Amino acid sequence: MNKEGLTDMVYFPVFIFLLLICSCKSEDQLTNERPLSPGDILVSSNGVFALGFFSPASSNTSLYIGIWFHNLSDSDSSRTIVWVANRDSPATRASSPTLAISNSSDLVLSDSDGRTLWAALNNVAVAGSSGATATLLDTGNFVLRSPNGTIIWQSFDHPTDTILPGMRLLLIHRSHFAGRLVAWRGPDDPSTGDFSFGIDPFSNLQLVIWHGITPYCRISVWNGVSVSGGMYASGSSSIVYQTIVNTGDEFYLVFTVSDGSPYTLINLDHTGTMKLLSWNSNSSSWAVISERPKGRYGLYDSCSPNGYCDFTDDQPACQCLEGFEPIGANSSKGCRRTEELQCGKGNHFVALPGMRVPDNFVLLRNRSFEQCAAECSRNCSCTAYAYANLSSTGTVGDQSRCLVWTGELVDTWKSTNYGEKLYLRLADPSPVQKKANLVKIVLPVMACLLLPTCIALVWICKFREKWRDKENWKKMMLRYLNTPNELGGKNVEFPFARYGDIVDATDNFSDSNMLGRGGFGKVYKGKLEGGQEVAVKRLSQDSGQGIDEFRNEVVLLVKLQHRNLVRLLGCCIHEDEKLLIYEYLPNKSLDSYIFDDSRKHVLDWSARFKIIKGVARGLLYLHQDSRLTIIHRDLKPSNILLDTEMSPKISDFGMARIFGANQQLANTTRVVGTYGYMSPEYVMNGAFSVKSDTYSFGVLLLEIVSGLRVISQKFIIDFPNLIAYTWRLWEDGNATELVDQSFIENCPLHEVLRCIHVGLLCVQDNPNVRPLMTSVVFMLENETTLLPAPKEPIYFTTRNNEVEELRRNMESSLNASSVTTLEGR
What we know:
By secondary structure, this protein is of the alpha+beta class. It folds into five domains: 1-123, Bulb-type lectin domain (Agglutinin, subunit A, Orthogonal Prism); 159-294, Agglutinin, subunit A (Orthogonal Prism), CATH 2.90.10; 298-428, no CATH class; 482-584, Phosphorylase Kinase, domain 1; 588-824, Transferase(Phosphotransferase) domain 1 (Transferase(Phosphotransferase), domain 1, Orthogonal Bundle). An eight-stranded mixed β-sheet has the order 28-27-35-31-36-33-34-32. Strands 2, 3, 4, 5 and 6 form a five-stranded antiparallel β-sheet that branches. It has a five-stranded antiparallel β-sheet with strand order 15-14-23-22-21, with no helix packed on it. Helix 7 (605-625) packs antiparallel against helix 9, helix 7 (605-625) runs antiparallel to helix 12 (773-781) and helix 9 (690-706) packs antiparallel against helix 11 (749-762). The longest helix has 51 residues, at 431-481. One of its GO terms (cellular component) is plasma membrane.
């Protein structure tokens, strides 16, 4: 045999061996005999996608399992990653991680130390599933199948930050909320970021990009057959379409592309921008077809309440809705009605076409157009409605969609391409307005002669009116505070402070003396001439607290004396200034401790339990032990002040109401309070009683135990608020998970669990089954008393999934005597 033949015989087997190795490392299938290690990849049958370990540019030591476009990248840095498995649990190169199929057909990512970094568990009972395989498809889907072909798990059901054609982003299942896209933390950091995209849990009808728990951009609103504002594009070679599908049991988002289209995807990037991308083979880069938000006008509520962004012109701009005018020089601060709505007075509806409907709507299902319009017409608090007929769309379930709004209209815009009619409620022109229009016609003709005279007369009238109002105001306050009143007081001597003394005490309201601020104004620390330290509440001229609330707080606090109520020392009226002087409490308010990670350890369980019982006794005094029943209506942590011994004192009585001796219930046309603490009957119907304070106390109690706000980052995906979260833990027997970690190791758990039990009793939907504060105090102070089982609080936890509950709440507010206007504080 010659030398050349010998050489061929030596190298030919080596060539075959290397060829086999390469083919093994680039198969599209993973089996339990062949785990995947760093350096190995799976490649789909036509070479479209690859799956393997990758390291982001920011870290060469961290390893992630991901899926990327195989034929679009020449290096690790140019990869387009579309899915990541272990995004919050990266492996390290030194730990020799492997992706393998276990004997029980679980897909497991583990390292040499035996740690499981990520796993897709086999939850499908399939006979003989030990021979499962995982295949990477040309769609980008990684599918784990049993030997008989049953799908055990697939990556398309668990998207990370990207949606591929054919992928279904499950938004709602009939029994639970489903998925969200969650952006990367940074351009080279695959871990969970701050921005997410998914269904709005409060409406179930719209897609939202969230920044934490705050809406960042509303993408679209579902009308039963398609989405309003959905991203789409058309061109000579491809069509891209995005829609929401309702099967009856579930909602899911899907987008498809026409045959022959270039690679296309939807991605939520780390800046919160949702982009529809298409591959441009000429430039070898991704082209942006559409994106949201685009510019500042795409951000949530960019034009403020009652304004809208007009996209019908080349240059988008904020405008006021018809019948509204800007607050200030332009509409950037929002808009207000030119003529206020008055219940029982004339009003009408105007149709605004091409509108993206506002946020914060209430859904009424299966109404005709006439019924939808009638629902809004009969409810004095209804400000607008929108209607969609679904009977001809072939959708499952509902035949119509009626949306109504009962407050300000937030986050809407107008477009020529898509949108729907928004029916806006406006007041009929008043006789005064008609006369004003006539004056506008006549006035220019006479302006040259009458203008100087009119200016002088107006100035004189305003000066006299202002002077008269101030004198009447002061006389009224003096007369009110020094004459018998509904509390039965006689000639109460109340100290009026001199304005100059307060200015001196606070160093002319110096910022260095400011203790806090809120919707009412600012609070300053001051020292009177005798050395006594005080807190001065300076009511803002723009605040909602006017003369009625000011008088209310003065009269109540001067006559109510209890160790758990803040003590009022005096007041002052000076020109436009309204000032209240309280005892100074050095430890400020409760919220500055329980919600601050750096300070919450100051309040151990004994201190928190003392605060809970103190607030309960204070409410009991207001409801029963004072001369008349008093409803606080704004109980929350920021209104609980703490003295030097951390004893609680209830403050802020500006919204309190006094009940007569035999009065059990009252209604209001102006609902004021703080969202999350207001009871269901108060929010929807304006009805309040002592049970309204019981509800607020229940929320406060749960916040003290958990250290979580009633609306918290923790609840953005699974639970809308603290009440829903608490109920789920209680039902599952895991109530101890609610307890704040700062004191859980040094507290009697039976006492804490009893407080959680009492809190759930207080936040029940039906006010008739909530306990009175007498019972609450008794339950808190007597451990041997058996407590009734709480009922599930449905209204604020699953109210948008309970259509009949919505309908009853809506119809119960149709009576004109119980109309409310929501004013969150």
